[in-house]
Amino acid sequence: MSKILKFLFSRMVIVGLLILIQIGILTFTIWKLSESFLYLYVLFTALSVIVVIYIMSKKDNPSFKLAWAIPVLLVPVFGGLFYLIFGLRRTTKRFRRRINKIHTEGFKYLEQDPQVFKEIEDEDKSISNQVKYLNKYAVAPIYKNTYTKYLSPGEEFFEELKRELRKAKKYIFMEYFIIREGKMWDSILEILEEKVKEGVDVRLIYDDMGCLRTLPYKYYEKLRKMGIKCLVFNPFVPFLSVIMNHRDHRKITIIDGHTAFTGGINLADEYINEIVRFGHWKDASIVLKGEAVWNLTVMFLEAWEFNCGEKEDYNKYKPYVNYEGTFEDDGYVQPYGDSPLDDETVGEYVYLNIINKAKDYIYINTPYLIVDNELVTALTLAAKSGVEVIIVTPHIEDKWYVHLVTRAYYAQLIEVGIKIYEYTPGFIHSKTFVSDDKIGVVGSINMDYRSLYLHFECGVFLYKTKSVMEIKKDFLDTLDKCQLMTLEDCYNEKWYKKLLAAVIRVFAPLL
Question: To which CATH superfamily is domain 346-510 assigned?
Fold first, then answer.
C-alpha cells in the first residue's frame, strides 16, 4: 500500500495529471465555444487550415511535417491550436538568444590547429570534408595528442569512471540526462563528497525531465549542502510549453580538463546490470585523455553558464593547465555537440556522411531505429552499392510502441541487403558507428527524431584511433549473442501489430 501511495503522490504522477487537466480544460473550452458560437468553430477550423499551410511550407523534415498535418486536419477544431502549443520547435526568443550568445562566446576558445587539419586533408579528402563540416557547423576542432579507450558494457565504464574520479585534483564536471539513486550513483556520490572535502570543484548538471521519476523533488538542495555545485537543466513545469521538448540528453564527465567520458551510459543501476529492467543492458562509452577533452569542457561550461547566468574564465580549464607532460598520440579525435536551437541537425549529418562515404562496411548499434527518409535512402544506397551494412537493435524493448515502430522499418531495409540483428539477451542502449576500420562514433545520439531534432546531444568522431578497432571487435562479438532478423520474421508478425505499427510510424516524429 505504501508503494502505491508513494507512486500516486509522486512528482511524475502529479505533473502528468496537471498537464492532462490543462489539455482537458483547453479541449473542453474550445469544444463548448465552438458549439455555442458558429463563427468560433469557423475561426478555429480556419486556423487549422492556415497552420497546415504553414507546416507544409516550413523548411523541415517531410516526415515531421506529415506527422503534424494529419492530426491537425483530422481534428480541425483543436488541431491548429494544439500544434501552436506542442508542435512548434521554436523556443522563446529570450531562451534562444541567451543560449546562442553563450555559444558564440564559447566558440572563441575553439580554434582548429591548421597543421592537424592539413595532415588529414593530405591523407584523405573525404575525411577532411567531414572534419570541416563539424568544424564549421558544430565549431568542433579535431585533435591529435589524445588517448581513447572504448568501454562496454556499463560495468567496465563504471569501474574506469571511479578510478579516474579518485584521481581528480582540481575539478570534476558532470552532465547527465538520468541519475537514479542506487549502487552506481551512491558509489559515485561518495567519491564526489570526498573530493569536495579535498577542495576539488565538483559540479553537476542533470536534466529535470530525465530525472523526473528517478530523483526526489529538489534533489539539488541535498547535493548543494554536501558542497557539490548542482544545477537542473530546463526545470520541468506542468504547463503546456514547447520549451519542455528540449532536453539535455548528454552524458559527460570531465576531470581536471585532461580526462573525459561520454557515450550512452547514464548514472543508474540498470546501466551496470545491478538491477534487471529489460534483460541484460548493453551500453557503451568512451574515455578520452588529452587535448580533445577541451571540446567537451567548453560544451559543459556553456551549459553551466546558461543554467546559472555566471560568466566563466574558460582558460582556467584547458587540458594542459592541470597536466604535466605529454599526451599519447592515438589518431584523430573530434568531440562535437548538437543543439536543437541552431536548425543544424549535426548528429544526423555526421551519420549520413559516414554512411555515404563508406566503402567496405558500416556497423551500427542503436536502441531505436526510427529514421527519416534521408537516413533510409542513405542506408539503402550504401547496401545497394555493395557496402556491408549491419544494424543491431534490442530484442527486449523499453517502450513497446517505439520497438513496434523500429521493427516496422526492418522489411524495407532487409529487402535491399541490410542485415538487422536483435540483441537477444536484452536491451542494447549503445549508440555507435564504425566503418572501414578507420572511422568510429560513440555518443548519446539515438537514431530517432527526438535525439536528431529536439535534444541537446554530443558525440565523438574518431579517425584511425585504436578505439575504432575496439568498437568493431565489440560489435562482432555482440553479433554472436544476436538473432538475425529475416523477411519471414517481418511477414509473420501478427496482422494487428503490423496495422498498429503502420499507424504509429506515421506519427513517429512525435514520439
Answer: Endonuclease Chain A (3.30.870.10)
